[in-house]
UniProtKB/TrEMBL annotation:
This is RQC P-site tRNA stabilizing factor. CDD domains: S4. Associates with stalled 50S ribosomal subunits. Binds to RqcH, 23S rRNA and the P-site tRNA. Does not require RqcH for association with 50S subunits. Transmembrane segments: none annotated. Belongs to the RqcP family. It comes from Enterococcus plantarum. GO terms for biological process: rescue of stalled ribosome. Key component of the ribosome quality control system (RQC), a ribosome-associated complex that mediates the extraction of incompletely synthesized nascent chains from stalled ribosomes and their subsequent degradation. RqcH recruits Ala-charged tRNA, and with RqcP directs the elongation of stalled nascent chains on 50S ribosomal subunits, leading to non-templated C-terminal alanine extensions (Ala tail). The Ala tail promotes nascent chain degradation. RqcP is associated with the translocation-like movement of the peptidyl-tRNA from the A-site into the P-site. One of its GO terms (molecular function) is ribosomal large subunit binding. Coiled coil: none annotated. Keywords: Protein biosynthesis, RNA-binding, rRNA-binding, tRNA-binding. The gene is rqcP. InterPro entries: RqcP (IPR025490), S4_RNA-bd (IPR002942), S4_RNA-bd_sf (IPR036986). Residues 1-64 form the RNA-binding S4 domain.
Length: 91
């Protein structure tokens, strides 16, 4: 399954164009390798996503073409979720 579609169906990122933009800006890795929106995601893959000041690491558990809101979280398991300090701050 394409990375952008997985992120949309699993509701990690709500809209596919946004998922594509995040991936194409180099903010997503699959198993430690920089990923594009067209990269394939397989069960067992570890995906690391950087959203602004947050880094989310997940493991892919299921692949589905569509899912209900309450079942979306069953598609992945959160490994870690970290806030990143902005290094530009001089506080």
């Amino acid at each position: 399954m394409r990375l952008d579609k997985f992120l949309k169906v699993s509701r990690i990122i709500k809209r596919r164009p946004v998922a594509k933009e995040v991936a194409d800006k180099g903010r997503i890795q699959i198993n430690g390798i920089l990923a594009k929106s067209s990269s394939n995601v397989k069960i067992g893959d570890q995906v690391k996503i950087q959203f602004g000041n947050k880094i989310l690491e997940i493991e892919v558990l299921e692949l589905r073409d569509s899912t209900k809101k309450e079942d979306a979280e069953k598609m992945y398991q959160i490994i870690s979720e970290k806030r990143v300090e902005n290094s530009d701050n001089l506080d």
